[in-house]
Specification:
Length: about 100
């Protein structure tokens, strides 16, 4: 899944994305979700919270959440907060597959 736009800041947009991802997981019975941050330049704390919740839900059904294509600023944030140890993160989508 790819995000459209460069910023995940707006609460309404984050909620829409959250609902779309969860409907993919439960509606289509997907156990592995790859989220590409290719276009994302800025990520809000609310968006990070949604990612954590998504990972917990996928873990509960023995699923897998994989993040990829992060720019250096977002990856550095994940490193500083040790979220890079919580999430599976790959440089490219090909590696994530």
């Amino acid at each position: 899944m790819n995000f459209i736009g460069k910023k995940l800041l707006d609460e309404k947009n984050i909620q829409i994305i959250d609902e779309q991802i969860f409907s993919t997981v439960y509606g289509l019975d997907r156990k592995k979700i790859i989220l590409s941050f290719d276009n994302i330049e800025v990520l809000s704390s609310q968006a990070v919270s949604k990612l954590i919740n998504l990972k917990k839900k996928l873990d509960s059904v023995k699923g897998l959440l994989v993040l990829c294509n992060m720019n250096s600023h977002i990856y550095e944030f994940f490193e500083r907060t040790f979220l890079n140890q919580y999430f599976k993160i790959f440089k490219t989508e090909e590696e994530a597959l």
